């Protein structure tokens, strides 16, 4: 067969199995930023590279395998990252299916998986998937070393690739850890996303992100300004590819060049800052806001913050720069429950004051709540629901406690023999067979039912609906009423 391209990068995804009917209209379709970063990285090393976004392009695994046959790459990289840490695991179902198709239809084309999930479970991934190689780590160093090899069958060459798992004589072998990219080299090494390889007209913002303009959810993009997180919440798996809690920043001057491209070339207005913790480091936040303000762009941003990281000096700058939404991980009203999850050192009054402060600045809030953390009982969850209704934020996400691979809760679940979903996509909060963790007081089914009922109660609460109509108008109110008419089908609800 004729020699083809050097590298085919595939971002797997199927919103239908992850979100059920919500995928048709309500869920976001987000550009695969890690795949885009790696694609541009490979191009910068003069490797001929193409990128497929399965979800955005609507391709089946068979179609992707056929494209692979036509392109005949040296190898295929399936990038199993998500736009939030948990999304890596829920995309594993399609990642495994894609690798299986290549294995059966094009066995001469080697496959590599990179991502958060596979970094958390590299040996398990290698043993249970039809994949040739697994990367443990963030990926660029491993990818470059593999691309530079002239023989992907030679174990003596493979042994020199950092962060690589492969099979030797049928047994899994790990080479050696791959160092993460130092912060002072981040801008030079991962110097942007290969936007030109992505179907930019296919991406769609979250519905709530565009409550001010509900019919203008496209164009849409997401970007990173930092990698990792310094905190240690037990339910989070963000740092699986990075080895330990840490955070590294791109230079704000470089970030603004990416924003320039999105605004001037693609006409993007709606942007998610995908950093796990954006509102944190003062110099970074203020400098980036100043650069955006200088440009005069009319962006509609949303980003993550924490109750204990929001400072008064941030808010005016954030709002002026176009940060219309901040996402707060409130999780639980109970300090005991939050402490058990290693989630901050603040109290209920701190939560209320920060929420009101943000709203007073003209910024809307996405409030994240979690039911089914280890110390939760029915009373504590009822109190969390009551707090959510008291705060009455512009949007609320209600999650069930899940043991995502790479989190401390996953290790705890294995130690205690707690049941886990049989399929990777059922780690999704919205899938049919989602199976949350039990608590010390509740079954998994009880947690799941409480979560679903809480979401419905919040979004049909007259006080919430009155606020929505007053702030965003009848059209958004109708949108939410239509949304709440969709009931998720659940196999394990109590």
Polypeptide structure, described:
It is a single chain. With 494 residues, this protein is α/β, with parallel strands linked by helices. It folds into two domains: 168 residues, Cobalamin-binding domain (Rossmann fold), CATH 3.40.50; 280 residues, Alpha-Beta Horseshoe (pyruvate-formate lyase- activating enzyme). 40% of the residues lie in helices and 16% in strands. It is built from 21 helices and 15 strands. It is globular, with a radius of gyration of 22 Å. The N and C termini lie far apart (55 Å). The mean pLDDT is 95.
Key terms for this structure?
494 residues, alpha/beta, Rossmann fold, pyruvate-formate lyase- activating enzyme, 2 domains, six-stranded parallel beta sheet, 21 helices
Lateral strand order in the biggest sheet: 2-1-3-4-5-6-7
SS field, number of helical segments: 21
CATH architecture descriptor of the largest domain:
Alpha-Beta Horseshoe
Strand content: 15-25%
Q: What's the oligomerization state? A: single chain
CATH superfamily of the largest domain: tm_1862 like domain
Domain count, please report it: 2
Kindly report the average pLDDT value.
95
For the largest beta-sheet, the strand count, sense and barrel status come to: 7 strands, mixed
CATH class of the largest domain: Alpha Beta
Distance between the termini: 55 Å
């Amino acid at each position: 067969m004729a020699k083809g391209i050097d590298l085919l990068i595939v971002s797997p995804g199927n919103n239908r199995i992850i979100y059920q009917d919500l995928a048709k209209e309500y869920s976001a379709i987000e550009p695969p930023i890690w795949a885009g970063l790696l694609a541009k990285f490979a191009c910068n090393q003069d490797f001929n590279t193409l990128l497929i976004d399965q979800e955005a392009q609507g391709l089946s695994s068979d179609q992707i395998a056929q494209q692979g046959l036509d392109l005949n790459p040296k190898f295929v990289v399936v990038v199993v990252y998500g736009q939030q840490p948990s999304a890596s695991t829920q995309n594993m179902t399609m990642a495994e299916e894609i690798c299986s198709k290549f294995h059966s239809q094009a066995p001469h084309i080697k496959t590599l998986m990179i991502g958060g999930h596979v970094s958390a479970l590299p040996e398990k991934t290698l043993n249970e998937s039809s994949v040739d190689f697994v990367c443990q780590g963030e990926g660029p160093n491993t990818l470059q070393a593999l691309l530079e090899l002239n023989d992907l069958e030679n174990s003596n060459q493979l042994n020199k690739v950092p962060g690589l798992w492969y099979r030797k004589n049928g047994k899994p072998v790990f080479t050696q850890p791959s160092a993460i990219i130092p912060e002072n080299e981040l801008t030079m090494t991962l110097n942007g996303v290969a936007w030109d390889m992505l179907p930019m007209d296919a991406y769609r913002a979250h519905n709530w992100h565009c409550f001010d303009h509900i019919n203008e959810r496209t164009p849409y993009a997401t970007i990173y300004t930092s990698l990792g997180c310094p905190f240690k919440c037990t339910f989070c798996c963000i740092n699986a590819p990075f080895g330990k809690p840490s955070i590294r920043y791109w230079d704000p001057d470089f970030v603004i060049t990416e924003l320039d491209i999105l605004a001037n070339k693609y006409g993007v207005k709606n942007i998610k800052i995908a950093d796990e913790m954006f509102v944190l480091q003062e110099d970074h936040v203020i400098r980036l806001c100043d650069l955006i303000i200088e440009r005069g762009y009319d962006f509609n941003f949303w980003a993550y913050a924490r109750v204990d990281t929001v400072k008064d000096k941030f808010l005016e700058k954030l709002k002026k720069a176009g940060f219309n939404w901040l996402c707060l991980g409130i999780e639980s009203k109970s300090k005991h429950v939050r402490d058990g999850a290693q989630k901050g050192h603040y109290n209920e009054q701190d939560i209320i004051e920060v929420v009101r402060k943000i709203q007073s600045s003209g910024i809307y809030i996405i409030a994240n709540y979690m039911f089914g953390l280890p110390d939760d009982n029915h009373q504590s969850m009822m109190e969390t629901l009551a707090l959510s209704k008291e705060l009455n934020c512009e949007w609320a996400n209600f999650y069930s406690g899940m043991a995502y691979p790479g989190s401390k809760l996953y290790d705890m679940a294995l130690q205690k023999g707690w049941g886990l979903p049989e399929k990777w996509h059922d780690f999704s909060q919205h899938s049919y067979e989602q199976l949350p963790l039990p608590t010390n007081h509740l079954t998994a089914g009880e947690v799941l039912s409480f979560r679903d009922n809480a979401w419905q109660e919040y979004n049909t609460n007259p006080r919430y609906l009155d606020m929505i109509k007053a702030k965003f108008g009848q059209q958004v109110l109708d949108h939410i009423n239509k949304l709440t008419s969709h009931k998720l089908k659940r196999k394990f609800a109590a």
